[in-house]
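Batch manifest line 243
LIGAND: uracil
JOB: complex structure
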Amino acid sequence: MRDELLDLAGALKDHILSERESRSGVSRLYLKGDLGALYPVPPDTDDPERESGVVMSVPSVTLEDIRTELGDCTRCKLHGGRLNIVFGEGNPHADLLFVGEAPGRDEDQQGRPFVGRAGQLLTDIIKAMGLTRDAVYICNILKCRPPENRNPEPDEIAACEPFLVKQLQSIQPRVICALGKFAAQTLLKTDTAISVLRGRFHSYHEMRLMPTYHPAYLLRNPGAKKQVWEDVQMIMKELQQES
Ligand code: URA
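JOB STATUS: finished
ARTIFACT:
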């Protein structure tokens, strides 16, 4: 009986995936009764149908879909100077997602986010939280390196942000940690200073967003590590709470 139910669930999953491909918008499947018991119910408290027993939840777009759509991007002027697109990396189902500003030289060379000096500090922060880089997701507002690491420009953010938004929608982390002024101000659509934004949670759609100082700022201002530690402790507490 259990095998039959699993076969049925598999067939339904295939059906949903093909529906998704045909862009019909079906992304969830609800079954009542025994089947509901076979599969864990996702922590989707806002969903009025949760009680009916969700057997599977198919994200409407995968990270692979988004990477494919991004392609060999030429949507902004940064494409001319880059070696590699830095799409992001980590757990596609992460509860915690870090967003930085833009790739630097090391990231551009390796095609991976936060692998230089600031990246080492971020890795240390993640370890101090009792996590690993593989357990979280790490990405940036911009996917290409600005020349000489200058600040991102509005047209570059406008071209790149839709892909970040899609990544966030696909991963649906419980908490976003916005590293530095550009990440926090871009996501929260504000020009309030990072020193004012940090230290408390903000709402980003149905996710919680904690702004904190960028690791590169911490390298120049080690005294601010105390505040970052306070911020990440609030994140840890939030993640420990039952969803
Ligand atoms: N700084 C960022 O904001 N992102 C990186 O990936 C590296 C450094």
